[in-house]
Amino acid sequence: MSAIVWRLGGSSGRAGRGAADGQCPVPVRLFQDVLPGLCPGATGIGDCLGTPIVYSPVKADLTGNIKKIRAVYDSNPAKFKTLQNILEVEKELHGSAWPKTGATLALMWLKRGLKFILVLLQSISDGERDEEHPNLIRVNALKAYEIALKKYHGWMLQKLFTGSVYALPYKSDLLKALEKGKEVKEEESIEKIHQFLARVTPILDAIYEMYTKMNAELSYKA
């Protein structure tokens, strides 16, 4: 995780300022650099959550949607330098079917899955916990789900998630996994999470702002 933190440098600040002007100048390449630290398949935070049923829907969304976005970018890197470029081209291309199509739809769901992970980490780093079971992350996961995903899921998915949080790893195991198995003091791991969030959160905020500005956000339930 720490490698991803420092790789981002100051780019996230530029992304946040652009969104305030109604633009989202987040380079696709930068966004792809962030993903290995968050998503399954690259020893990311997603993989550190383990593979319980509770995480399967989120994990499937992340991996599938990343592939869709990457395929569009790879088809013409010069044309699709930023995420906003992708949305603008697809809006023109798909007409009335947009935004419920293509990479636009994939990024919409991807950002929600990423927000789930970031809110979970923020809650852990803020010290929120079940006082009777301080080493569990159920409280943090449920908060993240409530904020990022619940309103977009139907009754069955909601029940599946809330009933399966007991399969999540202990907080101590999650932090150790983020350190790739190294024994590190909890406060040091939490500080790295703070640094990571400070750099990644503005990028995700910029993407959310772009969807609002372009009227690309949909509220249907999966």
Describe this structure in words.
With 222 residues, the chain is mainly alpha-helical. The protein has helices spanning 2-8, 11-20, 28-34, 45-48, 56-75, 83-94, 102-125, 138-148, 155-162, 171-178, 186-213.
Topology:
Blueprint: H1 2-8, H2 11-20, H3 28-34, H4 45-48, H5 56-75, H6 83-94, H7 102-125, H8 138-148, H9 155-162, H10 171-178, H11 186-213
Shape: globular
Q: On the 0-100 scale, what is the average pLDDT?
A: 81
Helix content: 55-70%
Could you tell me the number of beta strands? 0
Largest β sheet strand count, sense and barrel closure: none
Structural class designation: mainly alpha
Q: State Rg.
A: 17 Å
Number of helices: 11
Low-confidence stretches: 1-22
Order of helices and strands: HHHHHHHHHHH
Amount of beta strand: under 5%
Through-space gap between termini = 30 Å
Quaternary organization: single chain
Quick recap of the structure?
With 222 residues, this protein is mainly α. It has helices at residues 2-8, 11-20, 28-34, 45-48, 56-75, 83-94, 102-125, 138-148, 155-162, 171-178, 186-213.
Key words describing this protein structure:
222 residues; mainly alpha
